[in-house]
Design a protein that fits this description.
Structural class: alpha+beta
CATH architecture: Super Roll
Largest sheet: 7 strands, antiparallel
Number of helices: 5
CATH superfamily: TULIP domain
Bound molecules: 2-acetamido-2-deoxy-beta-D-glucopyranose
Oligomer: single chain
Number of strands: 9
Shape: elongated
CATH class: Alpha Beta
Amino acid sequence: MQWHFSFLCIAGFFIKYGLTRLTPDFIHPCKVDDRACLIQSTIDAIPYFTKGIPELGIPTLDPFYVEIVAIPLAGLNISFFKSNIFGFRKAVIDNVESNFAKRKLVIELHSNVTSKGGYEATGRILTFPINGEGDAKITITNLKLKVMMNLDTMSDDKGVNHLFIKNYKNNIDFGGKVHYNLTNLFKNNPELSRAMLQLLNENWKLVAEEFGKPIVAYATELILRAIDKFFLAVPYEELFEGPLPF
Ligand SMILES: *[C@@H]1O[C@H](CO)[C@@H](O)[C@H](O)[C@H]1NC(C)=O
Ligand SMILES: *[C@@H]1O[C@H](CO)[C@@H](O)[C@H](O)[C@H]1NC(C)=O
Ligand SMILES: *[C@@H]1O[C@H](CO)[C@@H](O)[C@H](O)[C@H]1NC(C)=O
């Protein structure tokens, strides 16, 4: 399945970019250990990458559309519907480090992120009971994200080498502030809804730890899938200078 997909992507690129170069122009290859080059190359790629690359099946990442994310927590079921997540286009890359001897790639960034959509929730947030359904707008100032990827390589049916993400871990830090605007937290009780929203905002950090992390983790997962698609479509040799390190 993956081979087939990858082949289609490559075929798509042949058609669009000609036979010599599969890589979109926004990629500047780096030596694997050239940290300054990796950082600059990532910075240069973000505005293009976040626009999406339809030929590769990579969706637009800003705004980034999420049909539904359901988060079952102890004591709280909360689902977000038809969310648009804005901000990754302006993410600031703080560090990119590769240790290819250990097959590792680390990306650190920070960004202001806003999510807008619908939600439904029943249960408790912190100790407060919730039974709501309405609009959700969540603004995260200075979200810090560190993604540590374990990579591997494979060779496709044409003998072309590709990186892929074997697995990853992430650290999420709500460095700045999180502001919530959820309407109708208590169905048909505007007064209680407003009071509850105020409580959520007064306790923004605890609330973010409780249900913010799963959301950001889910967004990270989707973004990494997009990066993985990109790796599977573009040969290793066009992303990095020098021979395959492992
Ligand atoms: C969450 O949803 C599940 C499945 O629908 C249900 O069994 C559980 O009781 C719900 N929990 C809360 C706190 O509403
Ligand atoms: C995030 O927003 C704050 C406050 O509006 C601003 O000072 C900061 O420069 C923004 N950061 C980024 C990465 O855009
Ligand atoms: C919250 O969102 C509603 C609409 O969804 C809007 O009318 C209201 O002004 C917003 N409140 C704040 C404090 O942003």
